[in-house]
Design goal:
The structure holds two protein chains of two kinds. By secondary structure, chain A is an all-alpha fold. Chain A has helices at about 5-15, 25-30, 35-55, 65-70, 90-110, 115-140, 140-154. Chain A has two domains: about 5-55, no CATH class; about 90-155. Chain B has a domain at about 110-200: Winged helix-like DNA-binding domain superfamily/Winged helix DNA-binding domain (Arc Repressor Mutant, subunit A), CATH 1.10.10. The longest helix of chain B is centred in the first third of the chain and has 31 residues, at about 5-35. The chains are: A mainly alpha, B mainly alpha.
């Protein structure tokens, strides 16, 4: 790749402001030139490494935030965040009801019309799917936290 | 993923992040103006680190920096209802912080760049990120070695506080082209250091 062209492209790239769209000319050159691509990649990572630490918020209940808030609003009181515990009781009960209903139907319909049995099993399958979807959607916070913990431990 | 896609994705993610932050701040500001102290506490929690890092450059000790941060947020709270949303909240806040710092009697005579003090911006970074940040700090140090104080602040605001040329120009009341040229010089030094790093 032409050294002069690379120099000009990098010059144009360095002139870009934060959050400015990278022009097509530069993008096209980066696609073809590995050297410039590596330089841009390193610049991007360096940029992120410098800005990231200051963009992480301080916990709202930390001493530093409390002392600032007390200076700003003298009667400010720290409110501990309320964490709503995920109650699984209702889910467990409805899950057990479904299992018993399926077992009961399975025993009763053993010698009956197989066509009815198939359609009822299809209904059961739809109910189970809806049950699982609602369970995940209703407890999204719980799953996100679990996934984050899993990512950290990995 | 190719480079073009990567860049477009980074661009899109960043503009989306900015839009979300802008919306979040506006909503917190209106709640805080309506008397919700918890919303203001959340705003403080989002920007405390930036103001602290900025203050350390002027005061160089925790005690004066703590006083400085309190003074800044007291001013912000007192004038919150006058924030019209013409600029980002962070720009408005940093302008207050800059004016407070330069007018403070406790400040050191000269500004000391953040690039001289890593502890304050220590985060959860991997070894490569740490090395790259070190190189960036070196480049910033080298670029500001012969610059007057205001330009040192300008490079810190760009490289560590994630501010654009226009935002820095607003905060420091410097011409945009002056800001651009100093940042460009620092970026060039950084690019050369990174090229050396890549060839190692």
């Amino acid at each position: 790749m032409n050294v002069e062209k690379c120099g000009q492209i990098m010059h144009d790239y360095l002139l870009l402001d934060r959050h400015e769209h990278v022009p097509l000319k530069i993008t096209a050159h980066l696609l073809a030139c590995k050297k410039c691509r590596t330089e841009v990649r390193l610049l991007t990572i360096a940029d992120k490494a410098c800005t990231k630490p200051l963009s992480i918020p301080v916990p709202i209940t930390s001493d530093s935030i409390t002392s600032i808030m007390k200076a700003v609003i003298p009667n400010y009181t720290v409110e501990e965040p309320v964490f709503n515990k995920v109650s699984l009781k209702r889910w467990v009960i409805s899950g057990l009801v479904m299992i018993f209903a399926m077992l009961f139907f399975g025993i009763n319909s053993y010698s009956q019309n197989s066509q009815i049995a198939v359609s009822v099993y299809l209904v059961f399958a739809a109910v189970i799917t809806a049950y699982l979807a609602l369970f995940v959607a209703g407890n999204m916070d719980f799953f996100i936290k679990k996934l984050k913990n899993l990512q950290i431990s990995l | 993923m190719n480079s073009s896609n990567l860049h477009n994705n980074i661009d899109n993610t960043r503009s989306m992040e900015r839009a979300i932050i802008e919306k979040r701040d506006k909503s917190l500001i209106s709640s805080a103006c309506a008397g919700d102290s918890r919303s203001f506490a959340r705003l403080v929690s989002f920007y405390e680190k930036k103001v602290r890092a900025f203050g350390m450059g002027f005061f160089k000790n925790s005690s004066d920096t703590d006083d400085f941060i309190q003074e800044v947020f007291i001013k912000v709270y007192a004038h919150l209802s006058t924030f019209r949303g013409e600029s980002l909240f962070s720009t408005w806040l940093m302008r207050i912080a800059y004016n407070t710092a330069v007018n403070s009697v406790k400040r050191r005579k000269e500004y000391v760049s953040l690039s001289d003090d890593f502890e304050i911006i220590d985060g959860d970074l991997g070894p490569e990120d740490r090395q790259l940040r070190k190189l960036t700090a070196q480049a910033v140090r080298e670029a500001i070695a012969e610059l007057p104080e205001r330009y040192a602040v300008c490079l810190d605001l760009y490289f560590f506080n994630d501010m654009s040329h226009n935002e820095i120009s607003d905060v420091l009341e410097l011409p945009v082209n002056t800001v651009k040229s100093h940042i460009f010089r620092a970026k060039k030094i950084l690019k050369d250091s990174l090229a050396e790093y890549a060839s190692m």
